[in-house]
Specification:
Layout lengths: L25 H11 L18 H5 L1 H9 L7 H4 L6 H17 L1
Organism: Escherichia coli
Protein name: Alpha,alpha-trehalase
GO biological process, one term: carbohydrate metabolic process
Length: about 100
Amino acid sequence: MLNQKIQNPNPDELMIEVDLCYELDPYELKLDEMIEAEPEPEMIEGLPASDALTPADRYLELFEHVQSAKIFPDSKTFPDCAPKMDPLDILIRYRKVRRGRYTS
């Protein structure tokens, strides 16, 4: 049994057809659409739309002053608060108040 010779098949039988046609799986067809899709954040009634900024990026010097003044018992309270108005308006009002303190 071990002494059997392996026979080489005819080379013409091993020819592979180059123009093979494969059909895409339905999941592969949807993959292109799914890559471009990104879930939208869920809107909560009464709150401004969320953004991708961190609280430090959103509130700039206001964030630094609130955190350094230790107004809240821990450092997570202020960053976790949901603003009741547009964060940009909050920052503008803060800057007006600060400017008023230094000019008077």
